Amino acid sequence: MFDTIQPAPADPILGLTDAFRADPNPKKINLGVGVYQDAAGKTPVLKSVATAAQRVLDANPSMSYLPIPGLPEYAAGVQSLLFGDDHEVVTSGRAKTAQTPGGTGALRVTGDFLGSNLSGSTMWVTDPTWPNHPSIFQAAGVSMAKFPYFDPKTNGLAWSDMLSALNEVPTGDAVLLHACCHNPTGVDPTPDEWRQIAELLNSRGILPVLDFAYQGFGDGIEQDAAAIRLFAELGGEFVVCSSFSKNFGMYCERVGAVTFVAKDAKQADIVNSQVKRAIRSNYSNPPAFGARVVATVLGDATLRREWEQELASMRDRINGMRTLLVDKLAEKGVPGDFSFIKSQRGMFSFAGLTKEHVHALRDRYAIYMVDSGRINVAGISESNVDPLTEAIAEVVK
Ligand code: LMR
């Protein structure tokens, strides 16, 4: 039966990591997958996370199944990050959080929920978006459409086209937004634009789904949650898909969460029963270790403070590398004004490189980035910025 099966293409992001690993060039540079690297090019285990992990191991907790929505103390920690303490959506019982295997798991549970309960709803994504977004929702049987988001002429938001397109999205559909640190462009709406988007979706009866994979990588833990809190303040329904891969540096532990916010507690209970059903028929119940670690960090004032400082230092390093990249592009004579890179936020940057540039960088200099031209700024360091910008200067010539 397998004779007829055709090979699947390599994943546009994780496939790059395989190619990078296999590349024998000692000068290779990996700016592909969104994984944080420190100044020495290492992906650190955060000290707060290591301490909490040891505490979890020492406590030797049961390895019996977790409940379908995961650890309650983890869900409470996630809600405190999303909404702050004692927020109305939490105290009223409107918000229900389920632990998921990573942000991808959260998105897939959302897709399964939509497919089973709101079939006929199309999911609208930003153009461009993370390449796995369409794959996840299509796999869940949800049809996809996209709306303009990025304008390559200004390297900013395609604001008026975006607004007109959102005005045309049919009532009953869903729109997937990146709550901060847009992947792949690094371009986020301003607070005023967020308000207009939120009011538009609310008034038109469109379900906002917020992918929140980079909390703390933009301007700060609280600042980056502003869009989430705005949707909460408006009182409507929405969904948040959280990932702790990046901000806890726990990529391989697959720690995420999906939070459904309903109109009231009664509706939230009904929605939650369907979320549990979606989880049960997918992976049954979530893995425990990573969530126990995150819950330990968030539940201990000292560890939490240490984690916040570690997260701030990752954020500061990335923002420092943005400035350095802009300076070095100018120094190496790359034509154009790249100062816009400094106002982009999060791990990624669209710096105007084409697919041809990306391929030339890979083939001639063993510099790896996603075909879309996305640069992982967190992979830049003092030691690779010169060869990187010299190579960019060569290929754009
Ligand atoms: C990325 O965009 O590089 C990350 O979110 C990692 C991934 O799974 O693609």
**Class inferred from helices and paired strands:** alpha/beta
Please give the share of residues in helix. Answer: 40-55%
Biggest sheet details: 7 strands, mixed
What is the general shape? globular
**Cross-sheet strand order for the largest sheet:** 2-10-9-8-7-3-4
Gap from first CA to last CA: 51 Å
Radius of gyration: 21 Å
Secondary-structure map:
Blueprint: H1 14-22, E1 29-30, H2 47-59, H3 72-83, H4 88-91, E2 95-101, H5 102-117, E3 123-127, H6 132-139, E4 144-148, E5 150-151, E6 156-157, H7 159-168, E7 174-178, H8 191-204, E8 207-212, H9 221-224, H10 226-234, E9 238-243, E10 255-261, H11 265-280, H12 289-298, H13 301-331, H14 340-343, E11 348-350, H15 355-365, E12 367-368, E13 374-376, H16 385-396
Parallel strand pairs: 1-12, 3-4, 3-7, 7-8, 8-9
Antiparallel strand pairs: 2-10, 5-6, 9-10, 11-13
Helix pairs in contact: 2-12, 2-13, 3-12, 5-6, 5-11, 7-8, 8-10, 13-16, 15-16
